[in-house]
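Severity: low
Component: inverse-folding endpoint
Summary: output formatting inconsistent between runs
Steps to reproduce: submit the following structure tokens with default settings.
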């Protein structure tokens, strides 16, 4: 049997496997993610996380989407990852170093139980995001059947497109999300976020995640939304981003690292047949 934990950050939920307590390298992770993340026949989750130790006080987090594809990073996932490591006694440190597909990130466990993560710098060049051409992609046209939109692309180690609208509640997410995720502009697909500037310090977000679909929250996406809001003059450096699952605080200053603060919760533990 494979032991696992079910965790979530603002309802963005994950199955986490502890590769520190035992060697799990034998497991077929893409297949396992498809099976365990299935909400009718499996545990149900937005992704599968693997925790590993790489030495010198550093850990590694890998993540697979429900469709079996591996993602570079996950903002809500890394908060859950850090909280589980602390709760399970895998570390006694409040500041961690975690290797991800997006590079080395540093989550910090706060006294109130929340986790603040140094997400590194936002990247804006098309090459970093996986878009053909040169330069940035800021307020550029994106046309899909039935809608001509404008989006800003941001990489937080994984690719995001942020589209500001007057009212996110009326966006047909299940139609527009997949159409943009697989748009020819984005050969490697992209995470899609619709955002509304409620004020200069408060942004509202709805998300369609690459390989997962509509989710209650996306941490790297919230960082991208805050960066895009600041770049386009819609918001300040420090903002609250409200997602369907709850709020995240994002701090972003041009040319500096982005910081994300939010909760992480372990729901239950279980076993899955190998």
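Observed output (run 2 of 3):
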């Amino acid at each position: 049997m494979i032991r696992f934990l079910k965790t979530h950050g603002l309802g963005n939920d994950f199955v986490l496997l502890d590769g520190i307590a035992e060697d799990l390298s034998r497991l077929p992770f893409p297949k396992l993610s498809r099976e365990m993340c299935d909400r009718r026949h499996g545990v149900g989750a937005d992704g599968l996380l693997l925790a590993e130790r790489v030495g010198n006080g550093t850990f590694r987090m890998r993540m697979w989407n429900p469709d079996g594809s591996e993602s570079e990073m996950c903002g809500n996932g890394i908060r859950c990852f850090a909280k589980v490591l602390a709760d399970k006694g895998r570390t006694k440190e409040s500041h961690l170093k975690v290797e991800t597909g997006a590079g080395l990130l540093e989550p910090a466990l706060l006294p109130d139980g929340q986790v603040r993560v140094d997400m590194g710098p936002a990247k804006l060049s098309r090459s970093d995001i996986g878009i053909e051409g040169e330069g940035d992609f800021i307020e550029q046209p994106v046309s899909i059947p039935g809608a001509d939109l404008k989006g800003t692309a941001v990489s937080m180690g994984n690719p995001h497109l942020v589209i500001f609208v007057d009212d996110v509640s009326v966006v047909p997410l299940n139609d527009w999300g997949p159409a943009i995720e697989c748009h020819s502009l984005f050969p490697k697909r992209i995470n899609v976020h619709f955002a509304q500037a409620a004020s200069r310090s408060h942004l509202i977000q709805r998300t369609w995640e690459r390989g997962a679909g509509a989710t209650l929250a996306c941490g790297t996406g919230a960082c991208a939304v805050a960066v895009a809001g600041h770049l386009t003059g819609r918001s300040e450096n420090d903002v609250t981003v409200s997602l369907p699952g709850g709020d995240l605080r994002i701090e972003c200053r041009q040319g500096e690292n982005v910081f994300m603060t939010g909760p992480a919760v372990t729901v239950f533990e279980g076993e899955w047949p190998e």
